[in-house]
Amino acid sequence: MIIETKHVKRILSYPLGFLLTASLLSACGAPARDTYDLSINDVAVAGTPKHQKIQILVEKPDAVKALDGQDIVIKQNGSIAYLKRAQWSDRLPDLVQARLVQAFDNSNHFGGVGRPGDGLAINYRILTDIRSFDVNVVNGHNTATLEISVKIMDDRNGNITASRVFKTEAPVSGTNNNQYAAALDNAFKKMTKDIINWTISTI
């Protein structure tokens, strides 16, 4: 594993199921960076007539500064570093928001799903807080660790109708960038499915 503490810049990628396409070196001559996307598992649940009338809005997740960027975070002995020559395809909160919208929409459960500005007549807001989204290194073992808090807010009165903290882990199968990103992607796919199923059963 190679890590760096400085901020990662522009994107490039490597061919894999959840990766984007490869590109050139940056103008300053730095090595190309692998750029990784997040993927989802579809939750194919037919909506009831009641739910087909419901429209939900997925807000952009909150996140601390270390997670509010494109860097892939590595935690070890209480310190934070970044995976060298690797980054997400977008700022992590924007990427998580986009994939949650996609997952909710693909569930075919609600009458409408979108983000702020999409012009929905919303009934509920999905509020999230990314608390952990990193590879945790403990005693030589590398584990993708995700923790996201989710709240459902009734848009009519602003009340929080339900909340839950989701935690998921996935082992890292090796020491290269692809394997680190794959573990995070696997953990995210499982968590996304859990979030969608919980929301469907709650609203």
Automatic annotation (TrEMBL):
Coiled-coil regions listed: none
Highest taxon of the lineage: Bacteria
Pfam entry (one): ABC_trans_aux
Span of domain ABC-type transport auxiliary lipoprotein component: 36-195
Gene3D superfamilies from the UniProt entry: ABC-type transport auxiliary lipoprotein component
InterPro entries given in the database record: ABC_trans_aux (IPR005586)
Name of the protein in its database record: Cholesterol transport system auxiliary component
